[in-house]
Amino acid sequence: MNGFQIKITKKDFVNNVGLAYVAVFLNMRKIFAPVDKASKIFRGGNTISDYDIVKTVLALICLGKTNFDDVEQYRNDKYFKKTLKLKVVPSAPTIRQRLET
């Protein structure tokens, strides 16, 4: 049989199309100068920085994901983490808490 095989699965498919292009801009520190000025949690510590929180949320929006819980699809995605230069992809509760503060 030539062509496609369709299989039913319970796995979530994660779409990263365009993430590399978006990451080029999100990895430019100078565009986040206002975040750095207002930030209370900086890069380099053991805590996820405000910069990484904002970068993660913007990346999700660019991928068409508008809900905090959508980040859970990307928590174990090595490509997402590496492309955005994140040590750890923040969880939905962490994003929600940080954006509220």
Structural write-up:
With 101 residues, this protein is mainly alpha-helical. It has one domain. The chain contains five helices and no strands. Helix 1 runs antiparallel to helix 3 and helix 3 crosses helix 5 (92-100). It is elongated. The relative contact order is 0.18.
Give structural attributes:
101 residues, mainly alpha, 5 helices, 42% helix
The total count of strands amounts to: 0
N-to-C SSE string, H for helix and E for strand: HHHHH
Query: Structural class, from helix and strand content?
Result: mainly alpha
Radius of gyration (CA) equals: 16 Å
Strand content: under 5%
Q: Which secondary structure elements does this structure contain, and how are they paired or packed?
A:
Layout lengths: L18 H8 L6 H6 L11 H13 L15 H6 L8 H9 L1
Summarize this entry quickly.
By secondary structure, this protein is mostly helical.
